[in-house]
Design a protein that fits this description.
The structure holds 2 protein chains of 2 kinds. Chain A is mostly helical. Chain A has 13 helices and 2 strands, in the order ααααααββααααααα. A two-stranded antiparallel sheet of chain A has the order 1-2. In chain A, strand 1 and strand 2 form a beta hairpin. In chain A, helix 2 packs antiparallel against helix 10. The longest helix of chain A is centred in the C-terminal third of the chain and has 27 residues. Chain A starts with a helix and ends with a helix. In chain B, strands 2-1-3-4-5-11 form a 6-stranded parallel sheet, with helices on both faces. Chain B starts with a helix and ends with a strand. Chain B folds into 2 domains: 126 residues, Rossmann fold (3-Layer(aba) Sandwich), CATH 3.40.50; 137 residues, Response regulator (Rossmann fold). Classes of the chains: A mainly alpha, B alpha/beta. The interface between A and B is medium-sized, with 34 and 32 residues.
Chain lengths: 312, 310
């Protein structure tokens, strides 16, 4: 029994994903075409990037509810800059810095002001939504990719045959993987989430680590915001509503424990793919929207129960 | 350190309060009559047409219009109504976020003799002066008939629905399907390929359309139940490199973005809600009632027109 548990822990998410892909492919072979697989990766990259940042935060035992609002605000700031004539490469750079600063604010509230992460990011989520409405006056910026070749590249661009958003997604995964598993900072993230008191005693810079994980989360949300803005060629003030839930779901399905200290970023990658395959697959099979939500909830529940079993 | 922070907080709070006080006194102009306009969600650009219509007509007739934004949260509107009553408004024009949340607050307003006109959605309360709404069912039918004329030989249709269970979703979809769906109209030469849910917003509609483009090679028509979704659908077709498929994209609302896309040939048509008419008519009703007690019809259905017809 123990062995099966260990095996699941190692390969469970991969197996779940493969089973899911097999089922959908049997029900409609059009699912498993290169065209559709690239389509899925393009869609998954948005939730996936947010979920990567969320993984860092959750590993420290925190949570970031403001990711969707950060995405919305970054998108609107980007849209505002582009539509007022800022060159797109500058606008994109500023947006990334801006997202990191928003995340850093969360980090300071959690690490220095010592607010509960849930409360702190709930408050900033509401504030960011408010600023989004103020900046945009509730009106979306449209036609943004028309004179912005670099922004356009974020949705339309291809490197060899790989769509650019997918490439960004994979490269960011590789970078964050190395940071999390091969650096002092990464070990610190696990230490803080595993046992904060022990981490303090072994003089790990807890404040710095906590501030940094929220900064990463903000940066990832802004990057996702840039990709979504490029995809729609417009920035919608309501963009990103509820995205925090999909991101948390991806992290949890990927086997990261909500109590912190345990989990892997590659698991989150697979978790995001599972959600993406579900969303796309249910559309491709042609399952009515009423059932779609139910099935998604069921899969999340199933993943979490399996994870608990294998951890027991 | 703590003391300084709290001091700063108090000072900033004081500033905010002083700021509020200023606007209060400024708004107490000489006896100018006031209309409160409560919008459900100014996040939807299309509703700005309605807001502007009420403001402009109000100005023409000499009213001050106080605008409230419910930010798409039904729970915000009741306290906004109370606030408006406090400010002594003479009439309320409300675009309610749902049919029940504001019922009690509006009952209070009606009890105080303040005329209430609801637009785009009704509220379940007695004594409302009038309720102006787009005839969505007829609009859906009109859209279906437009499509019949455009493709007499029929075609394969994707139906992009809004938020399930809302009146516009049921009525626009119902009206459209009553003409196009072979299950409901035996004479229809069309086939409903797939139905997807875009929740009346752009990103979900774009994502669902990307999936359906991967699934089908033979889509001839997409009917989106509002323009925001239609814009998302058009974008998905464009980014999938399927612009040459000649897919007819139909929207609903008459939003500026839709007209832009129609000009660029990326959308075909939109069923236009006459919000300019609805907004100014609401102010006319209020004005007539305040002047000599004239009561309009309790429910007024306003026709839509296809964007290529006017």
């Amino acid at each position: 029994m123990r062995k099966i548990g260990d095996l699941y822990k190692k390969y469970g998410t991969v197996v779940s994903l493969m089973i899911l892909v097999a089922i959908v492919t049997i029900l409609n072979p059009r699912f498993f075409t290169m065209y559709n697989i690239l389509n899925i990766f393009k869609q998954v990259s948005i939730n996936g990037l947010i979920a990567f940042g969320m993984t860092f935060v959750i590993l420290t035992g925190g949570i970031d509810l403001s990711v969707g609002a950060t995405l919305g605000l970054s998108g609107v700031i980007l849209g505002w800059m582009i539509s007022t004539g800022t060159p797109d490469y500058i606008a994109i750079g500023v947006t990334l810095v801006f997202g990191a600063v928003l995340g850093g604010m969360n980090g300071v509230l959690v690490s220095k002001v010592k607010l509960q992460p849930f409360i702190a990011t709930l408050a900033t989520m509401t504030m960011f939504r408010g600023i989004t409405m103020i900046v945009s006056d509730g009106i979306p910026f449209m036609g943004l990719t028309k004179n912005a070749p670099m922004l356009d590249y974020f949705s339309q661009g291809k490197f060899l045959t790989v769509p650019f958003p997918m490439l960004v997604f994979i490269i960011v995964l590789a970078i964050l993987f190395v940071i999390l598993h091969n650096t002092v900072f990464g070990r610190g993230v696990y230490a803080v989430g595993g046992n904060e008191e022990a981490a303090r005693l072994s003089s790990i810079p807890i404040t710095k680590i906590k501030t940094l994980v929220y900064t990463i989360s903000g940066l990832m949300s802004a990057l996702a915001g840039i990709i979504l803005t490029s995809r729609l060629s417009s920035s919608q003030p309501t963009a990103g509503m509820g995205f925090e839930l999909d991101a948390i779901a991806a992290v949890v399905i990927g086997g990261t424990s909500l109590s912190g200290g345990k989990g892997r970023i590659f698991g989150t990658f697979l978790g995001a793919l599972i959600i993406g395959v579900l969303n796309n697959g249910l559309n491709i099979i042609g399952i009515s929207a009423f059932y779609q939500q139910f099935i998604k909830g069921l899969v999340i529940l199933f993943a979490v129960i399996l994870d608990r079993k294998s951890n027991a | 350190m703590k003391k300084i922070t709290s001091l700063l907080l108090i000072i900033s709070l004081l500033f905010v309060m002083v700021g509020c006080g200023d606007t209060e006194t400024a708004s107490k102009k000489e006896e100018q009559q006031k209309i409160a306009l409560l919008m459900a969600d100014l996040g939807n650009p299309f509703f700005h047409v309605l807001k502007d219509a009420v403001e402009n007509r109000g100005k023409e007739l000499g009213y001050e219009v106080l605008v409230y934004d419910g930010q798409n949260q039904a729970s915000k509107q009741p306290s906004q109504i109370e606030d408006a009553i406090q400010k002594g408004v003479n009439a309320i024009v409300i675009n309610p976020a749902d049919e029940s949340s504001t019922a009690n607050a509006l009952k209070e307003a009606i009890a105080q003799g303040i005329p209430v006109v609801t637009v785009d959605r009704s509220v379940d309360v007695d004594g409302v002066l009038s309720y102006l709404v787009t005839d969505n069912l007829k609009g859906g039918e009109l859209t279906g008939k437009w499509l019949e004329k455009r493709l007499p030989e029929g075609g394969k249709v994707i139906h992009m629905e809004g938020i399930i269970g809302t009146a516009p979703q049921r009525e626009r979809g119902g009206g459209f399907l009553s003409v196009i769906d072979p299950a409901k109209n035996a004479n229809s030469k069309f086939e409903i390929l797939d139905t997807a849910v875009g929740e009346f917003s752009m990103a979900p509609a774009e994502a669902a359309m990307s999936d359906l483009l991967a699934k089908h090679d033979d889509i001839s028509v997409v009917f989106a139940q509002n323009d925001t979704m239609a814009v998302g659908v058009a974008r998905a077709i464009e980014t999938a490199g399927r612009s040459d498929d000649g897919i007819i994209v139909i929207g609903f609302d008459g939003a500026k973005e839709a007209y832009d896309l129609i000009d660029q040939g990326k959308m075909s048509v939109t069923a236009v809600q006459d919000f300019e008419f609805i907004g100014s008519e609401a102010v006319n009703y209020v004005d007539a009632f305040l002047k000599d007690g004239t009561k309009p019809e309790p429910k007024v259905l306003v026709d839509v027109f296809m964007s290529d017809e006017k």
